[in-house]
Amino acid sequence: MQSNDKQVQISDDLKQCIAFHGHLCPGLVYGYIVAKESIRLLDLKRSMDEEVVAICENDSCAVDGLQVMLGTTAGKGNLIIRDYGKNAYTVINRSNKNAYRFSRKTNYTYNGKHKDEFAELEKAVSAGTANENEKARQRLLKAIDLFSKPFDEVFLTKPAEFSMPSYAPMAPSVSCAVCGEMTMQTKMVPKKDEAGKLICLPCSNTAD
Questions:
Q1: Which of 2, 117, 153, 186 is the most buried (most CB within 10 A)?
Q2: Alpha-carbon gap, residue 84 to 73, rounded angstroms
Q3: Can you tell me the distance from the alpha carbon of 98 to that of 76, in angstroms, rounded to the nearest whole number?
Q4: Does 167 reside within a domain?
Q5: Pair 108, 22 in one domain
Q6: In the predicted model, what is the mean pLDDT of the chain?
Q7: CA–CA separation, 177 and 199 (whole Å)
Q8: What is this structure's pTM?
Q9: b/e sequence 8-27, b meaning 16+ C-beta within 10 Å
């Protein structure tokens, strides 16, 4: 990560987040710093199975930071997205039955040394006139600035009422009676007028 006048060191774990996500951006930083604070508060190790659960109230770039740092993934079933459009995240440690919710406090305000430049870039991005270099520069300045802020200035942290999340469901796959494709049995519905036959949801939506 480099600005015009200084080099900012990137930790190895942040490099992993950037490699997974594809680029550095403010959203990724939000997820990264939430994950770091979760690790500290909940004494977490990266989840190999479903030991850690993340409940994300948006589907933003931040989710990727949590996936890399905490090992919470859609495939394992310990990443739950409830897309309310909120910059808020609940992280759960199953082993000690503890959880915290992190919610962004206020609108973002840039406090770095390039205020005038950032303000102009923000205008261009908001107006849709920024070119790719300007967009990248705006993201970089905001990301650097976020790292300079104390966590408590960016996020409100509250203990969350612990409720043991269900483990990812396991069920056999069977052939859909219409298309023949193998489908998780618990995701299927009975075929109309043909007792005992199950069909997948796409076929159920097109069946007369």
A1: 117
A2: 19
A3: 20
A4: no
A5: yes
A6: 89
A7: 5
A8: 0.78
A9: eeeeebbeebbeebeebbbb
